[in-house]
Specification:
This protein is α/β, with parallel strands linked by helices. It has 2 domains: about 5-85 and about 200-265 and about 365-410, FAD/NAD(P)-binding domain; about 140-195 and about 265-360, 2-Layer Sandwich (D-Amino Acid Oxidase, Chain A, domain 2), CATH 3.30.9. The chain has 9 helices and 20 strands. Strands 1, 3, 4, 5, 10, 11, 12, 13, 19 and 20 form a 10-stranded mixed β-sheet that branches.
Protein backbone atom coordinates (compact mmCIF):
# COMPACT_ATOMS: atom_id res chain seq x y z
CA UNK A 1 0.00 0.00 0.00
CA UNK A 2 1.28 3.44 -0.82
CA UNK A 3 0.86 6.29 1.62
CA UNK A 4 1.54 9.97 1.09
CA UNK A 5 3.60 11.78 3.68
CA UNK A 6 4.25 15.48 3.22
CA UNK A 7 7.83 16.57 3.85
CA UNK A 8 7.87 20.07 2.41
CA UNK A 9 11.16 20.26 4.23
CA UNK A 10 10.32 23.59 5.78
CA UNK A 11 9.64 23.95 9.43
CA UNK A 12 7.60 26.61 11.07
CA UNK A 13 10.74 28.27 12.38
CA UNK A 14 13.01 28.71 9.38
CA UNK A 15 10.41 28.24 6.66
CA UNK A 16 11.84 29.03 3.25
CA UNK A 17 13.62 32.15 4.41
CA UNK A 18 17.29 32.62 3.69
CA UNK A 19 19.47 30.90 6.23
CA UNK A 20 22.02 33.71 6.03
CA UNK A 21 22.05 37.49 6.14
CA UNK A 22 25.05 39.56 5.08
CA UNK A 23 28.06 38.53 3.05
CA UNK A 24 29.97 35.57 4.43
CA UNK A 25 33.67 35.22 3.77
CA UNK A 26 33.09 32.18 1.56
CA UNK A 27 30.45 33.78 -0.69
CA UNK A 28 33.13 35.28 -2.92
CA UNK A 29 34.15 31.77 -4.04
CA UNK A 30 31.32 32.00 -6.57
CA UNK A 31 27.92 30.32 -6.80
CA UNK A 32 28.22 26.58 -7.00
CA UNK A 33 32.00 26.60 -6.66
CA UNK A 34 32.47 24.51 -9.77
CA UNK A 35 30.01 21.77 -8.80
CA UNK A 36 28.36 20.47 -11.99
CA UNK A 37 24.58 20.66 -11.66
CA UNK A 38 21.69 19.75 -13.90
CA UNK A 39 18.01 20.70 -13.89
CA UNK A 40 15.59 17.86 -13.22
CA UNK A 41 13.60 17.39 -16.41
CA UNK A 42 12.47 13.77 -16.19
CA UNK A 43 11.96 11.03 -13.58
CA UNK A 44 15.09 9.56 -12.01
CA UNK A 45 15.71 6.09 -10.55
CA UNK A 46 18.73 5.68 -8.25
CA UNK A 47 19.96 3.60 -5.34
CA UNK A 48 20.21 6.63 -3.04
CA UNK A 49 18.57 10.06 -3.27
CA UNK A 50 20.09 12.75 -1.04
CA UNK A 51 18.06 15.88 -0.25
CA UNK A 52 20.41 18.79 0.48
CA UNK A 53 23.72 19.80 -1.10
CA UNK A 54 25.40 21.34 1.94
CA UNK A 55 28.34 19.88 3.81
CA UNK A 56 26.24 16.97 5.17
CA UNK A 57 24.88 16.05 1.74
CA UNK A 58 28.38 16.43 0.33
CA UNK A 59 30.07 14.01 2.76
CA UNK A 60 27.12 11.65 2.29
CA UNK A 61 27.31 11.79 -1.52
CA UNK A 62 31.08 11.23 -1.58
CA UNK A 63 30.80 8.18 0.67
CA UNK A 64 27.74 6.60 -0.96
CA UNK A 65 28.87 7.22 -4.54
CA UNK A 66 31.68 4.74 -3.86
CA UNK A 67 29.15 1.88 -3.88
CA UNK A 68 25.82 3.14 -5.21
CA UNK A 69 24.13 5.25 -7.87
CA UNK A 70 23.44 8.58 -6.16
CA UNK A 71 21.51 11.75 -6.98
CA UNK A 72 21.54 14.90 -4.85
CA UNK A 73 18.72 17.48 -4.90
CA UNK A 74 18.77 21.02 -3.57
CA UNK A 75 16.20 23.75 -3.80
CA UNK A 76 18.99 26.33 -3.82
CA UNK A 77 22.28 25.92 -5.66
CA UNK A 78 24.89 23.62 -4.09
CA UNK A 79 26.44 24.88 -0.81
CA UNK A 80 24.11 27.87 -0.45
CA UNK A 81 22.50 26.83 2.85
CA UNK A 82 23.96 27.20 6.33
CA UNK A 83 27.29 25.69 5.20
CA UNK A 84 28.01 29.01 3.49
CA UNK A 85 27.66 30.74 6.89
CA UNK A 86 29.85 28.33 8.83
CA UNK A 87 33.07 29.44 10.48
CA UNK A 88 34.32 25.84 10.07
CA UNK A 89 36.18 25.26 13.30
CA UNK A 90 36.54 21.49 12.89
CA UNK A 91 36.38 20.33 16.47
CA UNK A 92 35.82 17.11 18.34
CA UNK A 93 34.91 18.93 21.58
CA UNK A 94 31.16 19.31 21.93
CA UNK A 95 29.46 22.48 23.20
CA UNK A 96 28.48 20.37 26.21
CA UNK A 97 31.58 19.27 28.18
CA UNK A 98 32.25 15.54 28.60
CA UNK A 99 31.29 15.59 32.28
CA UNK A 100 28.02 17.44 31.67
CA UNK A 101 27.22 15.09 28.81
CA UNK A 102 27.93 12.13 31.11
CA UNK A 103 25.33 13.54 33.54
CA UNK A 104 22.80 13.51 30.72
CA UNK A 105 23.50 10.23 28.91
CA UNK A 106 25.86 8.30 31.21
CA UNK A 107 29.64 8.21 31.39
CA UNK A 108 30.29 5.30 29.03
CA UNK A 109 28.12 6.75 26.25
CA UNK A 110 29.50 10.26 26.71
CA UNK A 111 33.05 8.91 26.35
CA UNK A 112 32.06 7.08 23.17
CA UNK A 113 30.53 10.28 21.76
CA UNK A 114 33.67 12.27 22.46
CA UNK A 115 35.98 9.58 21.08
CA UNK A 116 33.86 9.21 17.94
CA UNK A 117 34.06 12.97 17.36
CA UNK A 118 37.81 12.87 17.85
CA UNK A 119 38.06 10.08 15.26
CA UNK A 120 35.77 11.98 12.88
CA UNK A 121 38.10 14.98 12.69
CA UNK A 122 40.97 12.63 11.83
CA UNK A 123 38.75 10.95 9.23
CA UNK A 124 37.82 14.33 7.76
CA UNK A 125 41.51 15.13 7.38
CA UNK A 126 42.16 11.79 5.64
CA UNK A 127 39.22 12.28 3.28
CA UNK A 128 40.34 15.80 2.31
CA UNK A 129 43.95 14.74 1.84
CA UNK A 130 43.00 11.52 0.00
CA UNK A 131 40.80 13.43 -2.42
CA UNK A 132 43.26 16.37 -2.70
CA UNK A 133 40.50 18.89 -1.92
CA UNK A 134 41.91 22.41 -1.77
CA UNK A 135 39.99 24.00 1.08
CA UNK A 136 42.71 25.50 3.27
CA UNK A 137 42.50 22.60 5.73
CA UNK A 138 44.91 23.18 8.60
CA UNK A 139 45.43 21.06 11.73
CA UNK A 140 45.08 23.09 14.91
CA UNK A 141 45.03 22.83 18.67
CA UNK A 142 42.03 24.17 20.56
CA UNK A 143 42.03 26.50 23.54
CA UNK A 144 38.86 26.35 25.66
CA UNK A 145 38.87 29.27 28.08
CA UNK A 146 37.20 29.42 31.48
CA UNK A 147 34.08 31.58 31.31
CA UNK A 148 30.69 32.28 32.92
CA UNK A 149 29.42 28.72 32.52
CA UNK A 150 32.49 26.79 33.62
CA UNK A 151 35.26 28.30 35.71
CA UNK A 152 38.81 27.09 36.31
CA UNK A 153 37.94 24.35 38.80
CA UNK A 154 35.31 22.86 36.50
CA UNK A 155 37.70 22.97 33.54
CA UNK A 156 40.46 21.28 35.57
CA UNK A 157 38.03 18.45 36.36
CA UNK A 158 36.93 18.34 32.72
CA UNK A 159 40.53 18.05 31.50
CA UNK A 160 41.04 15.14 33.88
CA UNK A 161 37.84 13.44 32.69
CA UNK A 162 38.90 13.84 29.08
CA UNK A 163 42.39 12.49 29.75
CA UNK A 164 40.70 9.55 31.52
CA UNK A 165 38.78 8.87 28.31
CA UNK A 166 42.01 8.81 26.33
CA UNK A 167 41.52 12.29 24.88
CA UNK A 168 44.33 14.71 24.26
CA UNK A 169 43.45 17.55 26.71
CA UNK A 170 45.44 19.28 29.46
CA UNK A 171 44.46 22.01 31.92
CA UNK A 172 46.38 25.28 31.73
CA UNK A 173 46.78 27.44 34.83
CA UNK A 174 46.48 31.24 34.53
CA UNK A 175 50.27 31.70 34.53
CA UNK A 176 50.63 29.26 31.58
CA UNK A 177 47.84 31.02 29.71
CA UNK A 178 49.49 34.40 30.27
CA UNK A 179 52.99 33.34 29.29
CA UNK A 180 52.04 31.22 26.26
CA UNK A 181 49.06 33.17 24.91
CA UNK A 182 49.01 36.55 26.65
CA UNK A 183 45.43 35.78 27.78
CA UNK A 184 44.12 36.68 31.24
CA UNK A 185 41.65 34.01 32.33
CA UNK A 186 41.42 31.78 35.38
CA UNK A 187 42.24 28.68 33.34
CA UNK A 188 41.77 26.84 30.06
CA UNK A 189 41.86 23.42 28.43
CA UNK A 190 44.37 22.92 25.65
CA UNK A 191 43.49 20.05 23.31
CA UNK A 192 45.08 18.59 20.21
CA UNK A 193 43.45 17.20 17.10
CA UNK A 194 41.24 20.00 15.75
CA UNK A 195 41.41 21.75 12.38
CA UNK A 196 39.87 24.51 10.29
CA UNK A 197 39.00 24.89 6.61
CA UNK A 198 36.97 26.84 4.09
CA UNK A 199 33.61 25.04 4.45
CA UNK A 200 32.28 26.05 1.03
CA UNK A 201 35.33 24.77 -0.85
CA UNK A 202 35.33 21.66 1.30
CA UNK A 203 31.68 20.87 0.51
CA UNK A 204 32.12 21.75 -3.18
CA UNK A 205 35.24 19.57 -3.39
CA UNK A 206 33.36 16.62 -1.89
CA UNK A 207 30.44 17.11 -4.29
CA UNK A 208 32.83 17.30 -7.25
CA UNK A 209 34.45 14.09 -6.01
CA UNK A 210 31.04 12.41 -5.75
CA UNK A 211 30.23 13.70 -9.24
CA UNK A 212 33.39 12.12 -10.62
CA UNK A 213 32.07 8.83 -9.22
CA UNK A 214 28.79 9.27 -11.06
CA UNK A 215 26.65 11.18 -8.53
CA UNK A 216 24.53 13.92 -10.11
CA UNK A 217 23.51 17.14 -8.40
CA UNK A 218 20.13 18.47 -9.50
CA UNK A 219 19.22 22.06 -8.62
CA UNK A 220 17.15 24.03 -8.11
CA UNK A 221 14.83 21.17 -7.17
CA UNK A 222 12.65 21.34 -4.08
CA UNK A 223 11.44 18.06 -2.65
CA UNK A 224 7.84 18.58 -1.59
CA UNK A 225 6.55 15.09 -0.92
CA UNK A 226 7.46 11.49 -0.20
CA UNK A 227 5.54 8.46 -1.38
CA UNK A 228 6.29 5.17 0.28
CA UNK A 229 5.49 1.65 -0.73
CA UNK A 230 7.24 -1.67 -1.30
CA UNK A 231 11.00 -1.59 -1.38
CA UNK A 232 11.21 1.90 -2.89
CA UNK A 233 10.74 5.51 -1.78
CA UNK A 234 9.43 8.04 -4.28
CA UNK A 235 10.27 11.69 -3.80
CA UNK A 236 8.16 14.29 -5.55
CA UNK A 237 9.72 17.54 -6.75
CA UNK A 238 8.07 20.95 -6.79
CA UNK A 239 7.60 20.48 -10.54
CA UNK A 240 5.80 17.17 -9.89
CA UNK A 241 8.67 15.01 -11.19
CA UNK A 242 9.14 11.70 -9.38
CA UNK A 243 12.47 10.42 -8.09
CA UNK A 244 12.53 6.73 -7.23
CA UNK A 245 15.19 5.45 -4.86
CA UNK A 246 15.97 2.42 -2.73
CA UNK A 247 16.97 4.82 0.06
CA UNK A 248 16.55 8.52 0.73
CA UNK A 249 18.75 10.60 3.04
CA UNK A 250 17.52 14.00 4.20
CA UNK A 251 20.49 16.30 4.76
CA UNK A 252 18.39 19.45 5.02
CA UNK A 253 20.37 21.29 7.67
CA UNK A 254 18.21 23.47 9.88
CA UNK A 255 15.17 23.22 7.60
CA UNK A 256 13.77 20.21 9.40
CA UNK A 257 11.79 17.90 7.14
CA UNK A 258 8.20 17.52 8.31
CA UNK A 259 7.50 14.20 10.00
CA UNK A 260 11.05 13.84 11.37
CA UNK A 261 11.27 14.03 15.18
CA UNK A 262 13.62 16.74 16.44
CA UNK A 263 13.53 15.86 20.15
CA UNK A 264 13.22 19.47 21.29
CA UNK A 265 16.02 20.90 19.12
CA UNK A 266 15.77 24.63 18.61
CA UNK A 267 16.75 27.08 15.91
CA UNK A 268 18.56 30.14 17.22
CA UNK A 269 20.39 33.08 15.59
CA UNK A 270 24.14 33.57 15.53
CA UNK A 271 26.58 36.16 14.11
CA UNK A 272 30.07 36.02 12.65
CA UNK A 273 32.68 38.26 11.08
CA UNK A 274 35.94 38.07 9.15
CA UNK A 275 38.57 40.77 9.42
CA UNK A 276 40.96 41.98 6.77
CA UNK A 277 44.25 40.04 7.02
CA UNK A 278 45.81 40.93 10.38
CA UNK A 279 48.98 43.02 10.35
CA UNK A 280 50.94 41.44 13.13
CA UNK A 281 48.95 38.68 14.83
CA UNK A 282 50.38 36.80 17.81
CA UNK A 283 52.28 33.80 16.38
CA UNK A 284 50.17 31.23 18.27
CA UNK A 285 46.88 32.46 16.79
CA UNK A 286 47.24 30.73 13.43
CA UNK A 287 47.80 27.38 15.18
CA UNK A 288 44.84 27.48 17.58
CA UNK A 289 41.06 27.60 17.63
CA UNK A 290 39.86 29.61 20.63
CA UNK A 291 36.48 29.44 22.37
CA UNK A 292 35.13 29.88 25.85
CA UNK A 293 32.93 28.20 28.44
CA UNK A 294 30.32 30.97 28.38
CA UNK A 295 26.80 31.29 27.03
CA UNK A 296 26.79 32.74 24.44
CA UNK A 297 30.42 32.05 23.75
CA UNK A 298 32.95 33.97 21.73
CA UNK A 299 35.02 31.89 19.32
CA UNK A 300 37.81 32.73 16.93
CA UNK A 301 40.36 31.33 14.56
CA UNK A 302 42.51 32.50 11.70
CA UNK A 303 41.87 31.75 8.03
CA UNK A 304 44.65 30.60 5.71
CA UNK A 305 45.05 34.15 4.30
CA UNK A 306 45.62 35.80 7.69
CA UNK A 307 42.08 37.01 8.33
CA UNK A 308 40.59 36.57 11.76
CA UNK A 309 37.23 34.81 11.78
CA UNK A 310 35.14 35.15 14.93
CA UNK A 311 31.59 34.62 16.02
CA UNK A 312 29.10 34.49 18.83
CA UNK A 313 26.50 36.87 20.31
CA UNK A 314 23.82 34.16 19.83
CA UNK A 315 20.18 34.97 20.51
CA UNK A 316 17.41 32.50 21.24
CA UNK A 317 15.26 33.94 18.43
CA UNK A 318 14.93 31.74 15.30
CA UNK A 319 14.41 34.81 13.09
CA UNK A 320 16.65 37.58 14.44
CA UNK A 321 19.51 36.52 12.14
CA UNK A 322 17.44 37.76 9.20
CA UNK A 323 17.51 41.37 10.44
CA UNK A 324 20.20 43.28 8.50
CA UNK A 325 20.08 46.07 11.12
CA UNK A 326 21.51 43.66 13.69
CA UNK A 327 24.72 42.98 11.73
CA UNK A 328 26.65 46.13 12.65
CA UNK A 329 25.95 46.16 16.42
CA UNK A 330 26.60 42.43 16.70
CA UNK A 331 29.86 42.80 14.82
CA UNK A 332 30.93 45.67 17.11
CA UNK A 333 30.11 43.55 20.16
CA UNK A 334 32.25 40.67 18.84
CA UNK A 335 35.15 43.05 18.10
CA UNK A 336 34.95 44.51 21.63
CA UNK A 337 35.16 41.01 23.12
CA UNK A 338 38.07 40.07 20.84
CA UNK A 339 40.03 43.15 21.84
CA UNK A 340 39.35 42.53 25.53
CA UNK A 341 40.62 38.97 25.11
CA UNK A 342 43.71 39.71 23.04
CA UNK A 343 45.00 43.17 23.99
CA UNK A 344 46.56 45.14 21.15
CA UNK A 345 44.68 43.23 18.45
CA UNK A 346 43.88 45.61 15.58
CA UNK A 347 40.87 44.42 13.61
CA UNK A 348 39.38 45.91 10.48
CA UNK A 349 36.13 44.09 9.82
CA UNK A 350 35.68 43.06 6.17
CA UNK A 351 32.69 40.67 6.28
CA UNK A 352 29.79 40.37 8.70
CA UNK A 353 27.03 37.83 8.46
CA UNK A 354 24.41 36.02 10.51
CA UNK A 355 22.76 32.66 10.25
CA UNK A 356 20.29 30.19 11.67
CA UNK A 357 21.84 27.63 13.97
CA UNK A 358 20.43 24.40 15.45
CA UNK A 359 20.87 23.50 19.10
CA UNK A 360 19.98 20.40 21.11
CA UNK A 361 20.22 19.95 24.88
CA UNK A 362 23.08 17.48 24.56
CA UNK A 363 24.64 19.35 21.58
CA UNK A 364 24.54 15.95 19.89
CA UNK A 365 23.14 15.38 16.41
CA UNK A 366 20.30 13.11 15.32
CA UNK A 367 21.41 10.66 12.65
CA UNK A 368 19.81 7.49 11.34
CA UNK A 369 16.65 5.82 10.09
CA UNK A 370 13.53 8.00 10.43
CA UNK A 371 11.00 6.22 12.67
CA UNK A 372 7.95 5.13 10.70
CA UNK A 373 9.49 6.01 7.34
CA UNK A 374 11.05 2.88 5.82
CA UNK A 375 14.20 3.32 3.70
CA UNK A 376 14.51 6.95 4.84
CA UNK A 377 17.31 8.46 6.92
CA UNK A 378 17.90 11.96 8.28
CA UNK A 379 20.95 13.91 9.40
CA UNK A 380 20.53 16.79 11.82
CA UNK A 381 23.82 18.19 13.02
CA UNK A 382 23.21 20.42 16.01
CA UNK A 383 25.74 22.44 18.00
CA UNK A 384 29.04 24.11 17.27
CA UNK A 385 30.64 21.09 15.64
CA UNK A 386 28.03 20.37 12.99
CA UNK A 387 30.65 19.64 10.34
CA UNK A 388 32.24 16.94 12.48
CA UNK A 389 28.77 15.42 12.71
CA UNK A 390 28.42 15.55 8.91
CA UNK A 391 31.40 13.17 8.73
CA UNK A 392 29.96 10.84 11.37
CA UNK A 393 26.56 10.91 9.64
CA UNK A 394 28.04 9.85 6.31
CA UNK A 395 29.72 6.89 8.02
CA UNK A 396 26.67 5.78 10.00
CA UNK A 397 24.13 6.11 7.18
CA UNK A 398 26.43 4.50 4.61
CA UNK A 399 27.05 1.56 6.98
CA UNK A 400 23.31 1.09 7.49
CA UNK A 401 22.62 1.19 3.74
CA UNK A 402 25.44 -1.30 3.14
CA UNK A 403 23.82 -3.57 5.74
CA UNK A 404 26.75 -3.42 8.16
CA UNK A 405 25.49 -1.19 11.00
CA UNK A 406 27.99 1.18 12.60
CA UNK A 407 28.78 0.24 16.23
CA UNK A 408 28.07 3.83 17.35
CA UNK A 409 24.75 4.18 15.48
CA UNK A 410 22.78 3.87 18.74
CA UNK A 411 24.40 7.05 20.11
CA UNK A 412 22.80 9.28 17.52
CA UNK A 413 19.59 7.39 16.62
CA UNK A 414 16.14 9.05 16.54
CA UNK A 415 14.40 6.32 18.54
C1 LIG B 1 27.47 31.32 11.76
C2 LIG B 1 27.66 29.83 11.86
C3 LIG B 1 28.87 29.36 12.32
C4 LIG B 1 29.09 27.99 12.40
N1 LIG B 1 30.32 27.56 12.79
C5 LIG B 1 30.58 26.24 12.81
C6 LIG B 1 31.88 25.79 13.11
O1 LIG B 1 32.79 26.58 13.41
N2 LIG B 1 32.12 24.45 13.07
C7 LIG B 1 31.14 23.56 12.74
O2 LIG B 1 31.41 22.35 12.71
N3 LIG B 1 29.89 23.95 12.46
C8 LIG B 1 29.59 25.28 12.47
N4 LIG B 1 28.34 25.70 12.16
C9 LIG B 1 27.33 24.68 11.88
C10 LIG B 1 27.53 24.12 10.48
O3 LIG B 1 27.74 25.16 9.58
C11 LIG B 1 26.30 23.30 10.11
O4 LIG B 1 26.21 22.21 10.99
C12 LIG B 1 26.41 22.78 8.69
O5 LIG B 1 26.68 23.79 7.77
C13 LIG B 1 25.12 22.09 8.33
O6 LIG B 1 25.30 21.57 7.03
P1 LIG B 1 24.11 20.85 6.31
O7 LIG B 1 24.63 20.34 5.03
O8 LIG B 1 23.49 19.88 7.26
O9 LIG B 1 23.03 22.03 6.08
P2 LIG B 1 22.98 23.14 4.93
O10 LIG B 1 24.30 23.64 4.56
O11 LIG B 1 21.96 24.15 5.39
O12 LIG B 1 22.43 22.34 3.69
C14 LIG B 1 21.10 21.86 3.66
C15 LIG B 1 20.60 22.01 2.23
O13 LIG B 1 19.35 21.36 2.12
C16 LIG B 1 18.58 22.09 1.18
N5 LIG B 1 17.17 21.75 1.39
C17 LIG B 1 16.48 21.86 2.55
N6 LIG B 1 15.23 21.41 2.35
C18 LIG B 1 15.14 21.02 1.04
C19 LIG B 1 14.10 20.48 0.24
N7 LIG B 1 12.87 20.23 0.72
N8 LIG B 1 14.35 20.22 -1.06
C20 LIG B 1 15.57 20.45 -1.59
N9 LIG B 1 16.59 20.96 -0.86
C21 LIG B 1 16.38 21.24 0.43
C22 LIG B 1 18.91 23.55 1.49
O14 LIG B 1 18.64 24.37 0.37
C23 LIG B 1 20.38 23.47 1.84
O15 LIG B 1 21.22 23.78 0.75
C24 LIG B 1 28.07 27.07 12.05
C25 LIG B 1 26.85 27.55 11.61
C26 LIG B 1 26.63 28.92 11.50
C27 LIG B 1 25.31 29.41 11.00
Amino acid sequence: MRSRRATRSTNTETGKRDLRTGRSLWTDGGTGLGVPTAPLTKPVDVDVAIVGAGISGAFMARELARSFSVAVFDRRGPVLGSTMASTAMLQWELDVPLQALADQIGKAKAQRVYRRSRQAVDDLRSIVEGASIRCGLKSKASLYLAGDDYGARALAREAEARAGAGLDSVFLHPADLRSRFGIERTGAILSGGSASADPARLAAGLLRRANSRGARVHSPVEITGVLQGGDRVTLVSDAGIEIRARHVVFCCGYEFPKGVPTHGAKIISTWALASKPLGDPPAWLSRHLVWEASDPYLYLRMAADGRLIAGGEDEASPTRHADPEALAPKSRAIVRKLQALIPGLEIEVDYTWAGAFGESTTSMPLIGPIPGMPHAYAVMGFGGNGITYSVIASQIVAAAIRGRPDPDADLYAFA
